[in-house]
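Researcher: Here's my situation. A collaborator sent me these components and asked whether they could plausibly form a single complex. I don't have experimental data yet, so a predicted model of the whole assembly would be a useful starting point for our discussion.
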Amino acid sequence: MNTSVNLCGVTLKNPVMTASGTFGSGEEYSEFVDLNRLGAVVTKGVANVPWQGNPTPRVAEVYGGMLNAVGLQNPGIERFCQRDIPFLRQFDTRIIVNVCGKSESDYCEVVQRLAEEPVDMLEINISCPNVKEGGIAFGQDPKAAERITKAVKRVARQPVIMKLSPNVTDITEIAKAAEAGGADALSLINTLTGMKIDIERRSFVLANKTGGMSGPAIHPIAVRMVYQTAKAVSVPIIGMGGIMTAEDAIEMILAGASAVSVGTANFTDPRATEKIIAGIEAYMQTHQVEDIRELVGAVNG
Amino acid sequence: MAQKFEEQAQVRKQMQIADNIFDLTLQTQEIAKHAKAGQFVSLYCKDGARLLPRPISLCGIDQKEGTIRLVYRVAGKGTKEFSGLKEGDTVSVLGPLGNGFSLRNGRAFLIGGGIGIPPMLQLAKECSEKQIILGYRSEPFLLEEFQEQGEVFVATEDGSAGTKGTVLDAIRENGLTADVIYACGPTPMLRALKAFAAERGMECYLSLEERMACGIGACLACVCQTKEKDAHTNVNNRRICKEGPVFDAREVEL
Ligand SMILES: Cc1cc2nc3c(=O)[nH]c(=O)nc-3n(C[C@H](O)[C@H](O)[C@H](O)COP(=O)(O)OP(=O)(O)OC[C@H]3O[C@@H](n4cnc5c(N)ncnc54)[C@H](O)[C@@H]3O)c2cc1C
Ligand SMILES: Cc1cc2nc3c(=O)[nH]c(=O)nc-3n(C[C@H](O)[C@H](O)[C@H](O)COP(=O)(O)O)c2cc1C
Ligand code: FES
């Protein structure tokens, strides 16, 4: 039985990775999860300089999901390279660094700094709804998406995954633009912009008023978007959004994802990633699937 | 690094001890053995629509029995679910989490406000030279158990028991003095204690609260602002679930 997948030349032992921002750089979760089991660890977004993030409260629970407005707090690329990369190097897993920025030059500075570092892939977040500048602005306009992809590709030494926002009318337009810009792969979806109001206090629950929605409630939207995007582009897709179980992950793969990321599920169960991997293996066994790649985009009709 | 455990804990007993306040004892495998006063656990809901763990402080730790005691207020749907737990039921628990209190030398004030009172009980059992000051809205709970541990001063908002007003009013009214403060309670109370401690040159350790998602330091949901740049985050933010919930009042901005 083969569970390994190849993403633009990088082999992952299985298609399950962590979703950026929900797993730090793996250190905290390594008490519960054997990181060697994971296809890859995708790290929290990192910028050229440290970011303070948003005021608290930064998270709120909603029915079947959650909102977050962490605001990409991060220690900056220098600290990240000194501490987080050496930590992850101890494990037999792929390292995918998620990059955020406020301007094209911010992104490129981080990507350049990572050129000589032992990381396997870069995931460029052009879809964060929680910061005022940059971020999502690059992910909502096809021209801007193509431009930033080209700029990053010019300086990148590792394969580049562009991470797309669902907060658009037609995600396939942005996907095609990123592909035209030279993206090696696409990640989708980032969170959907939401809001929660405390009716007793008549105030917003999040200090930022709005936050990105994630969790099982967004899963059907993510499956639909992965399906549409897989039909529109030829680069591999990493599917995410509300994957809580192996069944959810397989659904995403059948829709067209070559790999999947697990995010909010880590909060509900710190061992979610390992359980999902075991569940995918069990599914393959019962359904006599010899190679996980048979399942990619294999939904009938 | 302190070890954390994810367990299916069994309910030993649960009872209601005041209006909306429940007292839950859980049998654990490892958590109790490794826990200390001021730490907390994450409790997970059974209802799959409620994804995030509920952080609840340890009110009691019985290392011999392997049990932990949680005293909590029903504040919403998750705590409502927990209040229905019966003897023999299981609940998923992660812990012990956070740093807990570290006892310093000197005479101490142990101060609890509202639902911040329960975690002070375990500390009261471990701290020798102390005065206990508890602030309630109205109806006191856990009072007798605190009285078994030492001298207790009560403040109530409505004046139905003890000093009418806040814990600081009770301290002033009774002319109390000490070297160190340990406190847990609502932010306005903690803010007032921080100012009070600074004024009197006392050491002061405060247990803070914030909305959490992971509970173990990975997601950066639960930060508080710090005066100095934090070693982990490299910005003026520190994780309450990991480096906290107890902080030296001088280090944090409230
Ligand atoms: C370190 C720490 C220790 C705590 N110890 C205790 C304790 O010993 N006893 C006790 O009664 N309460 C304690 N709390 C508060 C307790 O976590 C909340 O009352 C509880 O999470 C409410 O959950 P709910 O589902 O009933 O409410 P809901 O309002 O339905 O909860 C919705 C979401 O908001 C979160 N939330 C709501 N209120 C709070 C809050 N005050 N703090 C943090 N998250 C919140 C919930 O965890 C959940 O994710 C503590 C909080 C923290 C951070
Ligand atoms: C607390 C939190 C922080 C996040 N931080 C980032 C981030 O730094 N960069 C990023 O590209 N996506 C970030 N995301 C989005 C997730 O990676 C993922 O795309 C989204 O949550 C959907 O997956 P899920 O439903 O499995 O969580 C974050 C999500 C959450 C819940
Ligand atoms: S709750 Fe995730 S870092 Fe504290």
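Model: Some features of this prediction you could bring to your collaborator: Residues 1 and 290 of chain A are 5 Å apart (CA to CA). The mean pLDDT of chain A is 96.
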